[in-house]
Design a protein that fits this description.
alpha+beta; about 130 residues; about 20% strand; elongated; 4 helices
């Protein structure tokens, strides 16, 4: 974008554009750039959070969820859980999963594997953003 603005300014110096037209062009370039940033961000949220669980006994669980849904659900769930006294005792192993880490991964637009856990008995949990 800086190159495009420099070209517009150069055209003003050469007398090919007046300052009013140049100002409108520069504003349009800035708006185009901010729209591109928004589109990039929205493309990331179109990705999926994929959770894979495999037990030693051969049980398999596969869950694919849109990042948009995950982001809202995790934030809402954390708010609800924080309002329930001793909520961890009502849901088995709720303290094992680091929800803040998943939210941070989404906010930083990370892709690929973000969680890889294998228990002593051979159970595996994998969380991937693709």
């Amino acid at each position: 974008m800086n190159e495009e603005i420099a070209k517009v300014l150069n055209m003003v110096q050469e007398g090919k554009l007046n300052t009013e037209d140049a100002s409108e062009l520069i504003q349009a370039l800035k708006e185009k750039d901010s729209t591109t940033d928004t589109v990039k961000g929205s493309n990331y949220l179109d990705k999926m959070l994929k959770v894979r669980v495999t037990s030693e006994e051969g049980d398999k669980v596969t869950v694919n969820l849109p990042l948009r849904l995950i982001k809202v659900a995790l934030k809402t769930g954390l708010n609800i859980a924080s309002a329930i006294p001793e909520s961890a005792k009502y849901v088995k192993d709720i303290d094992v999963l680091d929800v803040d880490m998943i939210l941070k991964a989404i906010e930083e637009e990370l892709s690929g594997q973000i969680v890889d856990v294998e228990s002593q008995n051979g159970d595996k949990v994998s969380i991937v953003i693709e």
